[in-house]
Amino acid sequence: MSAPPGSRRVWGFVMDAREAFVLRTAGLVCGVLLLQMGFIFSYVAAFHDPKPHRVPVAIVAPASVAPRLVGAINALPGDVARARVASSRRAAAAQIRAGSTSAAIIVNPVGTTDRLLYAAGGGDAVATTVQEVAGQVEARYHRRIVATDLVPLQPGDGRGLSGFYLVVGWIVGGYLMASLLGVVNGMRHQTARKALIRLLGIVPYAIVSGFGGALIVDQLLGALTGHFLELALLGVLVVAATAAATMAFQVLLGTVGIGAVILVFVVLGNPSAGGPYQPSLLPGFWRAISGWLPNGAGTDTVRRIVYFGSNAITGHLLVLSGYLVIGAAVAVIGTQLHARAQREAVA
Hints:
Elements: H1 5-20, H2 23-47, E1 55-60, H3 66-74, E2 81-85, H4 89-98, E3 103-106, E4 113-118, H5 124-140, E5 144-149, H6 162-185, H7 192-200, H8 202-220, H9 228-253, H10 256-272, H11 284-289, H12 294-307, H13 314-346
Parallel strand pairs: 1-2, 1-3, 4-5
Antiparallel strand pairs: 3-4
């Protein structure tokens, strides 16, 4: 006796649902949910309550005043600034233009109006913070302060965010390209030679991406002008490093590697990069990882190229190169080891 049609439809639906929600699928869905919650937590935790932390400030003042002013700034609640004495106004201005100091307070020995020198190019949020800190300290001594921006933002770089979004675009392109190749051709390569060929395929994409991004922000939009070649070459390195690291994650973790890439470059990388709020305003964890991820290393390098004469970018370039070299090595060696393990399993 056959089951009624209604029962067969219900049973078919149950079997289809069972097939759709196998353990592996359920695990992937849970992984996506964790990434989603991590995304919300990371962004809100990083940005909901920005507080300055050891913002470097130079002090130019008479010998009788300088130690007291340095002590007052360093004693501000929350360790918001780190003051040190500069030998002269010229020396302090040179430090600001080199990006090694965020601001300088120049004390007038014969009047009650002092001057604050700062660099908006180092980040709009930091510039606002140093003006607030200087105002608090000056008010304590019943003095007033006049601010001068030594490194103003370019006219097209609203709030200094163009570099951040440029780097985010490069990183998104790098990991999407590598992820797409993994989805189409398999996460793990069959031989080390095929892994090497895929890595070489990164090069033309990275070149087009790097020069294309620089072309958009410079000639097309006028957001960051005058440094086309430097930004283009940086973009090539950022895209190549991100793509190579993505391939390494895929070789090591398979499909889960895509989730690991999103965790590193999106969930952790973007909030810590120093876009809306620079690292000195972020909570400790995000501040600590900022320079060690391509997002933060790339964003600060763009700022230093455009506003600070490319000063102190070597460390960031080494970080990006490390992602490229280590990522490529892991992709090739990991593929070789995986292929060997498969051959031994078959044998």
